[in-house]
């Protein structure tokens, strides 16, 4: 309006700004394109193409804590919206349920490990399983074991391999699957001095950390790729586990990857 008054009515800029209650600095301001904006846009596009399940929070945390850029989050979010990279998630109707008991937050590493299984299939239809193990403190991924069958002896072998380079946990949290309630597994835990904490049947929220980790695996790579052999699954899981621990931001760690969190 001030610009129109100046152009059409031949009034001075000072009078036009005074009439419409704006400063002359605001009137004369011209936005300057910054090369950083193009760099931000390029990196956002690369991140969302490589990690299609990442929203703005993970993208910004990666740029801030992994790439060590000091861009303001409002600036990055503006460019993120201009590029139309927002995740479109259809809301689901939720049933009203009683609030579950809060999950206790570990205060140090190797206090609680969580275990759980996942299922999928190869391109030829053969079904396989994944045994996931995490340290609840900082949500560090410890192991992903792939196999057509993962009986108790394979579970124990995987845990023994972890104990070769890592201090044993005080507690192992798991569900009531046959591999975890077997006499062999209970005897192994007793010999190691580890307490097994079983969740209640039908209460997966009591093992929420590993359930959220399972979802990350499902949407990050397991549902995005087809595998021909079990060896391909294991190789990809091993490389992704390194990416998860060292590069993938985690909101529970204030936007830092598990092994980069202080």
UniProtKB/TrEMBL annotation:
Task: Name the Pfam families on file.
Answer: rve_3
Please name the InterPro entries in this protein's record.
Integrase_cat-core, RNaseH-like_sf, RNaseH_sf, Transpos_IS3
Q: Which residues form the signal peptide?
A: none
Q: Where is the Integrase catalytic domain?
A: 102-262
User: A GO biological process this protein is involved in?
Assistant: DNA integration
Task: Mention one GO molecular function.
Answer: nucleic acid binding
NCBIfam families reported in the protein's UniProt record: transpos_IS3 (NF033516)
Protein's UniProt name: Integrase catalytic domain-containing protein
The organism is Acinetobacter indicus CIP 110367
């Amino acid at each position: 309006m001030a610009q129109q008054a100046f152009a059409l009515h031949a009034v001075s800029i000072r009078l036009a700004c005074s009439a419409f209650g704006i400063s002359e600095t605001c009137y004369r301001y011209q936005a300057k394109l910054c090369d950083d904006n193009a760099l931000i846009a390029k990196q956002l596009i690369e991140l969302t193409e490589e990690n299609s399940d990442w929203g703005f929070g993970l993208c910004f945390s990666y740029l801030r804590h992994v790439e060590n850029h000091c861009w303001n989050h409002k600036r990055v979010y503006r460019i993120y919206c201009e590029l139309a990279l927002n995740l479109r998630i259809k809301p689901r109707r939720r049933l009203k349920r009683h609030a579950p008991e809060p999950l206790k937050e570990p205060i140090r590493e190797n206090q609680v490990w969580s275990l759980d299984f996942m299922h999928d299939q190869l391109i030829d239809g053969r079904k396989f399983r994944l045994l996931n193990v995490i340290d609840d403190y900082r949500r560090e991924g410890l192991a992903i074991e792939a196999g057509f069958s993962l009986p108790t002896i394979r579970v124990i072998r995987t845990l023994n391999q972890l104990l070769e380079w890592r201090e044993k946990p005080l507690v192992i949290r798991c569900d009531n699957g046959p591999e975890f309630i077997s006499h062999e597994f209970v005897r192994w835990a007793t010999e190691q001095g580890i307490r097994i904490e079983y969740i209640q049947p039908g209460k997966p929220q009591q093992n929420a950390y590993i359930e959220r980790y399972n979802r990350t695996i499902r949407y990050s790579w397991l549902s995005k790729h087809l595998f021909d052999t079990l060896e391909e699954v294991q190789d990809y899981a091993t490389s992704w586990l390194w990416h998860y621990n060292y590069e993938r931001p985690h909101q529970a760690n204030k936007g830092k990857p598990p092994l980069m969190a202080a």
